[in-house]
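pasting for ref
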Amino acid sequence: MSKPLTSQWVRVGLGMALLLVGAVSLVSYQNAKQLMESSRQVRHTNAVLQSLTDISTSLIEAESGRWRYRLLQDQQDLERSRQSIADLNLQTNQLQTSLSGVATQQQDISLLTQLVAEQISLLQESLTSPESESDVQSVLFAQLKENRDDIHQVIRELRATEQALLQAQMDDSRANLQSRMIIEIIGTALTFIILAGVYALLYQQMLKRQQAEDLQRRLEQQKELSEMKLQFFSMVSHEFRTPLSLILGSAQLLADNLKPVLEPTKLKNLSRIQLAAKSMVQLLNDMLTLARADAGRLEFNPNWVEIQTFCLNLIEEVEVFHLSQRSIQLSQQGAATHAWIDEKLLYSTLSNLLSNAIKYSAPDSTVSFILQCHPDHIMFQIKDQGIGIPPEDLARLYDPFSRGRNARAILGTGLGLAIVKKCLDAHQGKISVESQVGKGSTFTVTIPQPPIPSTLTKPEIAAQSIR
């Protein structure tokens, strides 16, 4: 996952988490409001039930006081009865005020108010009527009892209605609370999951950044090490080149001066000195090339080069350098005559491949060197009849100091193919190999070519190749 896509997912996750937190907060707020409303409804119902209980109690106390006053003629009983009657008016008004907003109970409230007023009127009439009028008292008693029963019936209905309303309200609140609690739990869980995912993305991004920083630090350390290696090999190469040049020059002078007076067989020692010095120079060049490539400072300066002349000169120098009986056969295919290459790097590439082909072949064998020129690429194929490469060694063939298991008895440094790979990388070229143990190897080098500019004439191409 790329960095912009990861940042986008983080923003989306945080946005969804904020939306879920807001939704959960809203649901929690509604739950709190529902609990407060349920609590208010419970208090209201309790107040109504208490008012109904107070009305029933006041009725009982009013009648009890009336009967005690009739029996004992005690003024305190009369005052108690009158106080209860006054309380009835107040309690009825409070009940009517409490239930004024409930349309379903207005009829019962009106009926209760009417019955309480009638009961108060009957109680007051019974208190003021003469005791001698027993018939009147009997009628009043019957009316009081009947009216009291009606009042109790209305109170029971009001109580049942209020309790039913409270129960319905509580059931509805419970259902709403349960659904909201489920939503709150799910929302909280989803928020936690999203935040955990965002944290995982951020943690993964942090790990990638740390890995990138570690990689950058290792690359810088590797670059510093490569620079140190390059400085060391440059210094070594410089220090060794001077005495090696003296050795080569002195050996050549001795060979020229002693050639008339010494037999050719005795001049072989001077040839061996020259060959050993050239080998040391080549080894220094190889090590310096690898150090430059590792430090990223391998120079790449391509020009248009007349490729057939280049290959002929290369073959001549390789054969002179190795002083062997092996011959190199050159064959050319294609009509192109010039190639866009770095002459020094391509020389190092092909000379190493040809040197390996000669080194690992039989003394009387022939090395085939095929040049194929195409409009979009140039290809070199070097085929020998040597010892071949074991299949298990092909994977590390281009590693520095790596040599085949069957080549340990033949002198070599293991740097040649590593240099070949570095030089081809500079050309953006490719190399492939086909090999069989005991039958030889075929190396194929392919280098892409740009189109020759139409404005570039052949003399200009030749001039560039000379430069």
